[in-house]
Every structure is written in structure tokens, then in C-alpha cells.
Design goal:
Helices cover 50% and strands 16% of the residues. The protein has 2 domains: 2-192 and 372-399, Rossmann fold, CATH 3.40.50; 195-366, Rossmann fold, CATH 3.40.50. The strands form 2 sheets. Strands 3-2-1-4-5-6-7 form a 7-stranded parallel sheet, with helices on both faces. Strands 10-9-8-11-12-13 form a 6-stranded parallel sheet, sandwiched between helices. It has helices at residues 13-22, 35-40, 52-68, 74-91, 105-108, 126-140, 149-161, 170-178, 195-198, 202-213, 232-241, 259-264, 280-286, 301-308, 321-324, 339-351, 353-366, 372-399; strands at residues 2-6, 26-31, 48-50, 96-100, 116-121, 164-167, 186-188, 218-226, 246-254, 269-272, 289-292, 313-316, 331-334. It contains 18 helices and 13 strands. Helix 3 (52-68) packs antiparallel against helix 4 and helix 10 runs antiparallel to helix 17. The protein has 400 residues and is of the alpha/beta class.
Length: 400
């Protein structure tokens, strides 16, 4: 197949593109990232079309918007990228045009009718996301970054224009169905992880088991962005009420809406600035458990990374945790905004060290991380079936 991928940045598009190329497909990635970065992910330069100026400008304007707490440049940068990609796809035929939501409307309007138009939404339905974050803003008592009215309307139009919508978790899929999207238009595509990079070895698991069996405080790792959306309010309370038994480490950036929470938690959580993905395995090796109290997420690659590293996971329902965790065997899935349940579970872990050790071993032995080659294969299969169905429908229409 000839496949175009429209992505403003990287996200998981580079991993998907690399595996599609390895499967023998003709792939063209339209991005604002430099070709040298794509090459680090194994994508030949010949498969990349990039808009470097957009990448530079969008990064500068994003920082300016953050400084003034307004979205002065959002419409400009998103339409600019969409129109740039639209010119490329309008000049040649692609069997599949696959785009990331938010920068895709202009491209969708220019895709040739015979092409399959697919969209990927990295989070829940944008209206469900907005509702959850609005509630969190009221709970936190501080402004929380939410999708703008303009972006919400834009994404709803994108949902209508495409043939298929790829979602990255059952939670996200249900959010679309609950918002009235036809289930037949949805495809669940769980993402992968670099198994060789994050997979724990026997010595690391033995050392983790030794620590868990000891009387030392349990090591709980959190990776991502420290923000209200990711459950910072609950994380701080969990850390405060389990400090006697748990040593917390957070690795990642600090969002503006959680800066005051970070200061409050400075004595209970060790904060490490965001580090390159290639250096993350060392952090997973440090931990005994992985915590993810997010309010709203699509997939969150850190969950797959933690699973590959053999860490038992405590996470909320509003992400891919229900798709990845075997309850009580490789971790626990708990409701959002219930820090009391996370606290209770951590105390259980402290009091049941032998059972927790068995969970460490189960996470190592039973969890088989999903490889990116499987993701690419599933994507192609879903697209092939949809193309065939589209051709049959068009043939019937022409006969009538």
C-alpha cells in the first residue's frame, strides 16, 4: 500500500512508519521534525517530507501562548500545517491517508475520493476530554489547560470527514461511542513499546524482589508530565499519606497548572527533569511499582514501558490500563479521583511483601509487551478491510 502519515511532531507516528516500511509499504511521513531525528527511529530520509519552518515557529508560538495564557497562534499553526500537508496529498494518489487529529481538517478536504481517510485521536473524544478537565479545574481550584472552543469544533469536523477513527484504548473507544460516534467507524489500535530497550532481565527482577522482601520503603516510580490532567492532585495526597512506607520518584516535566503542587510535594516526591526516552530504562530499573493516577489519557506509552520493565502497575480506568493490566496479577486498575484507594493498595503492598514479590515475578513472566511490528500489521489489516468495504459500497452505488 501507499500510505501517507500526517503528524505535527512525532508522537507514535515514527515507530508506526518504520514498521510499515519494514513490511514493504510505500510510506510518506509529513512532519515538522528534522529528517535526522526520524533517522534515529529507523525511517529512511527518502520517506520523510518535513516543514522545518513550521516546527521552529510552532515551538516558539507555543511558548509565547503559555507565557500569556492565551492561544494567540493556535489557529495559525494548525491551519498552516494542515494546508501544507494538503498540497502534498492532492498531488498524488495514496491508498491510505492517515492523520493526527487537530492538524488534519485541511488535508481531509483535499484527499482524493478513492483514498481511505483515517484519523488517529491520541486521547479520549475531545468533548469527553474537555468535560473531564473542566471538572478537574474546579477540583484543583486553578486553571487547567483544556481544548479550546475552536479546536473542539475543528476536531468534531475531522471525525465526520474521515472514514475510520483509530483510538488507542478501550477507554478512548467508549468515549467516542458515548458521544454518538458509530462503533463501526472506530478501530482500537493498542500501541507498542521497544521490547529490547525496556525489557527487564533476570538480574534486575531478582534485585527488585530482594528489595520488596526487605523492610526498606517501597520504590514507586511515576513517569510523564506532572499536571492536573495526569492526576497531580491525587499523586500529592497519595505521597503524603504513604511517606512512611513509600519512596516516590517522578520523572518528567512540570506543567504550569501543577507548579504549586510540585513545591508542596518537594519533601515527599523526588522530582527528576524530563530525560531522553533512550535513558528511561534506568529509571524503570530503579522502581518496585509504577503509579499512574491520570484523569484522562489515550494510551500513555509509559504504561507499556513499565509493563515491559516488569513493574506491577497501579493506574486509573481512564487510560489503557484496563487493556494492559490483569487485575490483581500484574497490577491494579482503580477509579479516577480516588486517591484513598491508591493509598489503601500501597499499604496492602507494604503489608504483603511476599505476595507483591510474586506480582513482580508475574509481571516479568506473564506480560508480553506488544511489539511495534504487531501494531503496524494490525493497522494495515484494518485499512485493507476498510478499503475493500469502501470499494464494494462504491461499486453498488454505481450500479444503482
Amino acid at each position: 500500500m501507499k500510505i501517507a502519515i500526517v503528524v505535527h511532531g512525532r508522537f507514535h507516528a515514527f515507530e508506526l512508519a518504520r514498521e510499515l516500511v519494514r513490511l514493504g509499504h510505500d510510506v510518506c511521513v509529513m512532519t515538522n521534525y528534522p529528517k535526522r531525528i526520524a533517522a534515529r527511529f529507523g525511517i529512511p530520509a527518502s520517506h520523510i517530507k518535513n516543514n522545518l519552518l513550521h516546527g521552529v515557529v510552532s515551538r516558539i508560538t507555543y511558548r509565547l501562548d503559555a507565557l500569556v495564557h492565551r492561544r494567540l497562534f493556535e489557529q495559525l499553526t494548525h491551519r498552516w500545517f494542515g494546508n501544507w500537508a494538503a498540497k502534498i496529498v492532492s498531488r498524488e494518489h495514496f491508498d491510505v491517508v492517515h492523520g493526527f487529529s487537530g492538524v488534519y481538517e485541511e488535508t481531509l478536504n483535499k484527499v482524493k475520493d478513492e483514498s481511505l481517510k483515517t484519523l488517529v485521536r491520541g486521547s479520549a473524544h475531545i468533548e469527553s476530554q474537555y468535560s473531564l478537565l473542566k471538572q478537574e479545574e474546579e477540583r484543583a481550584g486553578a486553571p487547567v489547560e483544556k481544548p479550546s472552543h475552536w479546536m473542539r469544533a475543528r476536531e468534531r469536523r475531522e471525525y465526520e470527514l474521515c472514514d475510520l477513527i483509530f483510538v488507542l484504548s478501550s477507554f478512548a473507544r467508549n468515549s467516542f461511542i458515548n458521544r454518538g460516534v458509530d462503533p463501526l467507524k472506530l478501530r482500537l489500535l493498542l500501541l507498542g513499546t521497544n521490547c529490547s530497550q525496556f525489557k527487564a532481565n533476570g538480574d534486575q527482577i531478582a534485585e527488585r524482589s530482594r528489595r520488596v522482601r526487605s523492610t526498606a520503603r517501597l520504590r514507586v516510580l511515576v513517569v510523564g508530565t506532572f499536571s492536573c490532567r495526569k492526576g497531580a492532585v491525587d499523586l500529592v495526597r497519595i505521597a503524603e499519606e504513604t511517606r512512611q512506607i513509600v519512596e516516590f520518584r517522578f520523572v518528567g516535566a512540570i506543567a504550569g497548572d501543577a507548579a504549586s503542587l510540585q513545591k508542596r510535594a518537594a519533601t515527599t516526591i523526588e522530582f527528576i527533569p524530563k530525560i531522553p526516552q533512550f535513558d528511561l530504562p534506568k529509571q524503570y530499573e530503579w522502581g518496585d511499582l509504577f503509579l499512574f493516577p491520570t484523569i484522562e489519557d489515550g494510551y500513555a506509552a509509559v504504561l507499556a514501558q513499565a509493563a515491559a520493565a516488569g513493574l506491577p502497575i497501579l493506574a486509573t480506568t481512564n487510560c489503557a490500563a484496563p487493556d494492559l493490566i490483569t487485575q490483581g496479577v500484574t497490577g491494579w486498575v482503580l477509579p479516577i479521583r480516588r486517591p484513598d484507594l491508591f493509598i489503601k493498595q500501597l499499604w496492602w503492598c507494604n503489608q504483603h511483601r511476599e505476595e507483591l514479590t510474586k506480582m513482580v515475578e508475574s509481571a516479568y513472566n506473564q506480560v508480553v509487551p506488544r511489539d511495534w511490528s504487531e501494531v503496524a500489521w494490525d493497522f494495515v489489516t484494518d485499512c485493507a478491510v476498510a478499503i475493500e468495504a469502501k470499494q464494494v459500497t462504491e461499486c453498488r452505488s454505481s450500479l444503482n
